[in-house]
């Protein structure tokens, strides 16, 4: 285990199990819909890669780079589109794949943008949901785990750009961010 991690919250095995379960639901719900599945970079890359391989129907993938945190611990409140979609969402069933919903600002902004662009439906699949910190009313349609209000990293989630490559989700030791 990485020495900056206080505790593993969700192991590789637990994450794979949840991907399998959500993938089965998505396979059923999106049968014959040919949805556009959108990965929100960079945090959602690991979850996206794992979950789409558990969806057994026709899906198209696209990527969007949206950032609200920069290198800070707290959300800045503004959501920047760094890379937009390549594919039009007009008339499409859209599924947004996220690593975590925290304040809800990123997804509130993204979901309303995609609706404005006339997506037929917009649903959200998130690995982690941290409802304690919610500022915007946003309720995900598919959730892997509800997380306690701790600073979590790994499996795509970063602190100052690092820890994304950990294969599990863990709680960062406070000493790591207290020295900054
Ligand atoms: C993180 C995370 C979510 C968002 C959640 O992304 O990956 O996308 O913040 O926070 P919110 O619900 O308060 O908006 P971040 O902006 O740090 O970019 P990253 O995915 O590139 O790390
Ligand atoms: Mn993100
Ligand atoms: Mg981040």
N-end to C-end Cα span: 22 Å
Mean pLDDT: 94
Q: Give the strand order of the largest sheet, numbering strands 1, 2, ... along the chain.
A: 4-3-2-5-6-7
Total number of beta strands: 9
Taking the sheet with the most strands, its summary is:
6 strands, mixed
Pathway: Purine metabolism; IMP biosynthesis via salvage pathway; IMP from hypoxanthine: step 1/1; Purine metabolism; GMP biosynthesis via salvage pathway; GMP from guanine: step 1/1
Organism: Liquorilactobacillus nagelii
Domain Phosphoribosyltransferase: 9-160
EC number: 2.4.2.8
Could you explain the architecture of this structure?
The protein is of the alpha/beta class and 180 residues long. The chain has a single domain (12-147), classed as 3-Layer(aba) Sandwich (Rossmann fold). 24% of the residues lie in helices and 29% in strands. It has four helices and nine strands. The protein has helices at 12-29, 45-52, 105-116, 174-178, and strands at residues 5-10, 36-41, 60-67, 80-83, 93-101, 121-129, 142-146, 152-153, 169-172. A six-stranded mixed beta sheet has the order 4-3-2-5-6-7, sandwiched between helices. Helix 2 (45-52) links the parallel strand 2 (36-41) and strand 3. Helix 1 packs across helix 2 (45-52). The longest helix has 18 residues, at 12-29. The mean pLDDT is 94. 1-O-pyrophosphono-5-O-phosphono-alpha-D-ribofuranose (PRP) binds next to strand 2, strand 5 and helix 3.
